[in-house]
Design goal:
The protein is of the alpha+beta class. It has helices at about 1-15, 20-40, 60-65, 80-110, 110-120, 120-125, 140-150, 195-205, 225-235; strands spanning about 130-135, 160-165, 170-175, 210, 215-220.
């Protein structure tokens, strides 16, 4: 159903024209982030290519939650009950699908614009082009990997600067791949786990807030401090 009618549904929900390039991007993203898991479960495709038992159970996915609407084994499964439960399941699945389409089309996709602008201006942050600064916060990570491939960036950026909701500035190391916990380059080992004045003293950069113990993110009170941290991290291990 999604393969044959998904583009039309996406365009209708978002008010886009069917031939709008945004429609295709949203259609593909919604399949990857929402529909593919349903497809996989429905067709018995294992999520992982290994025989190691899962470390924990997860029954919070949409397929599991829809399954809870099936009549219970120890109650009478009358046609009226089955139809009522089916209507509930349909409402749940439909509302989550529509919410996903609207999020992808109206929140996630517009995030591509500031990321593209930040990459274009990255050499003004540092001549190496290894640091980019978002003009405003946006969901940037997936857009980054896509734009890197489209633009053929070489070398690829190592750090992203952005302002958080409190007005402070963050330095985030860029992971080697979407969803990976391995970074292209982490923040300096000597600063990891430090906070506030201790971090400022160790780094020689005023306004330190923290560097995570894993070295993937740090914070400073000012843009200048965060930039100085990212620049130092280009050469410090």
């Amino acid at each position: 159903m999604y393969k044959h009618f998904g583009r039309e549904v996406v365009a209708s929900l978002l008010g886009f024209a069917a031939e709008d390039p945004r429609t295709e991007k949203v259609y593909l993203k919604v399949y990857k982030s929402f529909m593919e898991a349903i497809d996989g479960i429905d067709n018995g495709v294992n999520q992982y290519d290994c025989s190691t038992p899962a470390r924990y159970e997860n029954h919070t996915g949409l397929s599991s939650r829809v399954g809870t609407f099936n009549p219970k084994w120890n109650e009478e499964a009358t046609p009226a009950l089955s139809n009522a439960q089916f209507a509930k399941a349909s409402e749940l699945a439909g509302s989550e699908f529509a919410d996903t389409v609207r999020y992808v089309g109206l929140t996630w996709l517009p995030g591509r614009v500031p990321v593209e602008a930040a990459l274009a201006a990255r050499h003004s942050v540092h001549p190496s082009g290894l640091i980019f600064r978002l003009p405003s916060y946006a969901p940037w990570k997936e857009h980054l990997y896509e734009l890197e491939a489209e633009l053929g960036l070489d070398p690829k950026p190592l750090f992203c600067l952005y302002q958080d909701e409190k007005g402070n500035w963050r330095v985030q190391a860029i992971s080697t791949a979407p969803g990976s916990f391995d970074n292209r380059r982490g923040l300096p080992t000597a600063w990891r786990g430090l906070r506030d004045e201790e971090l400022s003293q160790a780094s020689g950069i005023p306004g330190g807030i923290f560097v995570h113990a894993a070295g993937f993110i740090g914070g400073f009170k000012t843009e200048e401090g965060a930039t100085a941290m990212a620049v130092a991290a280009l050469t410090m291990d």
